[in-house]
Amino acid sequence: MHPREVGQRGTGDLGVQGLGRGVFTIIAVMFASRTAVAHGKHVLCEKPLTLSLQHAQELVDKARDKKLFFMEGFWTRFFPAVKLLREELSKGSVGKVNIVRAAFCSPTAVLERMRKRELGGGALMGSGCYLIQFADLIFKERPQKIVALGQLSDEAVDTSAAIILTYSEGRMAVLCYNNGSVLGNNTLTIHGSKANIELHSPFHCPTTITLPSGETKVFPLPETPYTYNWANSNGFVYEAECVRKCLQQGQLTECPDMPHEDSLNIMAILDEVRRQLGVVYDNLKD
């Protein structure tokens, strides 16, 4: 069966409908996004948006100029557990957020796209960006200070790092990642002045959350007849459904849950972390 047919059947089973064109396309290459925007197409681009803030800004500006819907695909933000986390933060259930602590360890170093510098490789762009996007989601501002220490492979891409982001009023995000480990207990904990919130592993596609009240809530994933290479991949339906709704409204050029500003803030942090780690991509050299 052609991959497009598989995609059409899969999205149909998950309750995601097309927009009358009968075509479902997944764009997972940042350069394809530039071409799509140039041809007047709405775009959902897999993270990371680009390899640099400069390129991300150019892409966002082009989409805005053409009044096209454009969104970076951080699927994490659309899981029900994450939406509940945001509601709890908005209510002030944890009080002042003092520390965000998270780790992302996985055995992905063997993947070609993670190993090769010419493919934009490195664990920061593959998995570390999930940590950065959560810090951005929670603190809603750019950090005042960024400190990153890590290790590079023989191919000059990062394999692991510890990152500390310092925000106003002394608030911090303490983050670490490694792509040469067995799958870890990848949880995310928010420590507040009143209470804590924890997203259970895997925090980047979570189905379980422990609330400030101590209650643990579980959100079962939609059932599908398909098998996937990565955990909880049927959770992509949440992101797809949000994009469908935005397109059907007709006037939205960005998604409120993943706005352009957040993508640019995340990319600014990624740029600085990458600089401190010493990862330089060929197409970004001066």
How is this structure best described in words?
Residues 84-198 form the GFO/IDH/MocA-like oxidoreductase domain. The protein has 8 helices and 10 strands. The chain has 286 residues and is α+β, with helices and mostly antiparallel strands. It has a domain at 75-222 and 260-280: Dihydrodipicolinate Reductase, domain 2, CATH 3.30.360. 36% of the residues are buried. The model is unreliable at 1-8 and 10-28 (pLDDT under 50).
In short:
By secondary structure, the protein is of the alpha+beta class. The chain has helices spanning 3-13, 30-38, 53-65, 80-91, 112-115, 123-139, 236-249, 260-277, and strands at residues 43-46, 70-73, 97-105, 145-152, 158-166, 172-178, 188-192, 196-199, 208-210, 216-218.
CATH evolutionary superfamily of the domain at 75-222 and 260-280: Dihydrodipicolinate Reductase, domain 2
CATH hierarchy class name of the domain at 75-222 and 260-280: Alpha Beta
What form results from the Cα inertia axes?
A: globular
- Mean pLDDT score: 89
CATH architecture of the domain at 75-222 and 260-280: 2-Layer Sandwich
Rg estimate, integer Å: 19 Å
Poorly predicted runs: 1-8, 10-28
Question: Largest sheet, described in full?
Answer: 8 strands, mixed
What's the order of the H and E elements?
HHEHEHEHHEEEEEEEHH
* Portion in strands: 15-25%
Biggest sheet strand line-up? 4-5-6-3-7-8-9-10
**Span from first to last CA?**
45 Å
Number of helices: 8
CATH topology term of the domain at 75-222 and 260-280: Dihydrodipicolinate Reductase, domain 2
Which class do the helix and strand fractions yield?
alpha+beta
Kindly state the number of beta strands: 10
Helix content: 25-40%
